[in-house]
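User: Hello, can you help with two protein structures?

Assistant: Certainly.
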Amino acid sequence: MRLVLAGLLVAAAVVVGLIVNAHHPGLLFASAAPIFGDWQPHVGPGTPAAVLIAFLVVAKGPELARHRFALPIAYLASVAWTFSLAMIDGWGHFVTRLTSVDEYLHEVPEITDVPAMLNGFTSRILDFQPDSWTTHVSGHPPGALLTFVALDRVGLQGGAAASIFCVLVGALATVAIPKAIDNNAVLPFLVLFPGAVWVGASADGMFMGVAAVGIYLLTRWPLLGGVVLGWCLFLSYGLVLLAPLAIAAMWGDGGRALGRRIALAALGALAVVALFALNGFWWLDGYELVKLRYYQGIGATRPYWYWVWANLAALALVIGPAGIRGLHRNKWVVGAGTAILAADLSGLSKAETERIWLPFAVWLLAGTAKLDKRWLTAQALTALAVNHLVLTNW
């Protein structure tokens, strides 16, 4: 029944999107609604590789999930899957996704004094100023920009290095999640995650990997996990919604042990918050200004009445049929679902959620462990269909 309802939801979102775009061009600001991209059936150099990788994972994935080197094998397979999907659109598209005038790399050459940048960051968030940040820099805390500044400083300049970095970090979710939930049976489903279409390459794909590592660390070393999740707060304001997943990671220890783990995690996160505050950036100030900036742009145009449910249609394509089939009441699915519902109802997630919600959506695959190879095939077909029918912006 869930699959039928999800299919009807996707179909309705596509049909309504086509009708609205035909009569009110620019209202949805997504030509291939509910996906941000353009309807453009195509093949590319990555097509044969993507089909081959999908075939191999379906055929051997469940078996390899029991291999002693299952995690490194899965990581490499995830990187290969994500990269092959990206190459369906071609190398040129891949290396320019993070270099447009709206993206982070556009601002990197200007950053010559990091303390000064942090101290004056909030003053440049609002639009219609001579020195306003680009769309993506203004819409995120400074940690996202600092990440690409750091890459530049160590000699990894340009769109190719940034895009490859996002893929490599994003694929860490494939190994962090099985470790967190202590179940390698989900590995092949994470490898063939349809959301990989948007991991290669978007900064949100990178956020997904960092967040997954942070949640895993909470299950073992809460202080270190708190530091990583504290850093996540400065990659994206929306990652404050990792809180339900963080609770899930620590849930199960009773009494004093649970309290100690929460205290250690909070201490680690607060240390990162304090470090940014001491350097002139206060998270709450940035968040309040970002809400204003959001409605200075296309956030004011995109209608809530459509995106509040069409976002969920996009999510269905991200997690695929196996993700939908595996939705059941476990703490990871509940945590991720709570975060997604809060983001959806907030009105600050109108479109592009196929990439923005990646750090939460990937955890919905925690319920796929008992599914068979047929569902792996369905995952692969979903990703291949989306990537070949729509030219996505990421």
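That covers the first. Now for the second protein you mentioned:
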Amino acid sequence: MIRVDGRTLRCADVVVAAETEGPLGIEIPATALRAAEQSWRLARELSTQRVVYGRTTGVGANKEDRVTAEDSAEHGLRLLRSHAGGSGDKMPAGQVKAMMLIRLNQLLAGGSGISPTLIGALAEALRHGAVPVVHRLGAIGTGDLAPLAETALALAGEQPWLTGGMPPVKVHDGDALAFMSSNAATLAEATLAALRLDVLTRASHAVAALSYLALDGNPEAYAGPVHEARPHPGQVACAAEMRRLLGVESAPKPGKRLQDPFGLRAFPQVQGPALDAIHYLRDVLAIEINSSTENPMISAAYGDAYHHAHFHTAYVSAALDQARATVHQVAELSAARLGDLVEPEFTGLRPFLAAGPPGSSGVMILEYVAHDALTELRQAALPVTVGTAVVSRGIEDHASFSTQAARAATAVCRAYATLLACELVAAVRALRLREADLAGLPAQDAYAQACAVLDPALEDRPLTADIAAGVELLDSLSRI
């Protein structure tokens, strides 16, 4: 049961909504419903007393066009119909449900002035597992107008449902812009990607630990005194986690090599920024999904409407850019460790961890797969915040492109998972060839889980299934 009150929705709740097939259990406190209704009554009153954008006027460059009270309801339907022009592929059902949950929570924050009818309809759609058809393309980080217009028209009975369905409800005066004025679709994808990146970075500690053991790494790089000297939070946390997994003390004895390659030695310094960036991203998203962002904001506390720019999501796009860039650096280290694992100088084994007759290729193909994934990740890590757009006859002269940043973060998740899986397959193979004894080490749990799902056959064979199994295992490795 997810509590939806406009203030306390968690990023983890959004993931639950996305992963739940069918009906979603939600609890809405009566106080939140009363606050939303109070905002709705105030909005109707204000619309008779002053100009209120989107209620008594057109939108965008049409803000000077006045809408009569008699035409207000039909004006709202026209707004929804004209903005429901999404294109491209259909958005996955899980992401749409996450969007719906976020939008419901934002509306219950009590600043939209939307009718209780539409709030109730959105809540019931979630409770019944009804998901509208929503298209991916149609936003640039200044409001998910197209996806939310499609959702509102589905509730009104004018657009199709992807799964399930609901009886149509009336769109009241002022509902249209109030419903569309949000970045809920972008926040949904960003939240799902952020928590997936969190899982992958936590799993990468276990994968790196197995590579360390296969490569006879030097634990000095993770020593407590080293990281106390430059105590960035993520770096300190990474070093501590590596010491835990490897069962070494804070001030460990030197290893066999004086210094390891950067893939092992610099792991805390490169992983640290990624951990910190993802933490910051989650903080930003936690604020966004619990905020009233509608323009205009209908403030019951102050008894007025305020026109503003909360539709602009610079915080989100900047945080996503930072997270993707830092994860890319960590991914480069994973590819570097994979290169070390196929090098006899570091493992004492045959080139490419081969085990068959002379000329056997072993895991040679893993490097190609890994660098293919790394190249995709690198492209997805490029910043979106260096661009802008001017639309609506020049009145909307800047965009955050957080929507595109969220899509890129999803791509980073896919590529990084593949890269980690390639490293994992190679590390486990090296440990098997060495008949390593990891008894007493926390990393043994990771090794045992990997051995249980990765094919032990060492002859040259396709590794596609191994890579897929490695990707599936990452969720479990993140919890070791």
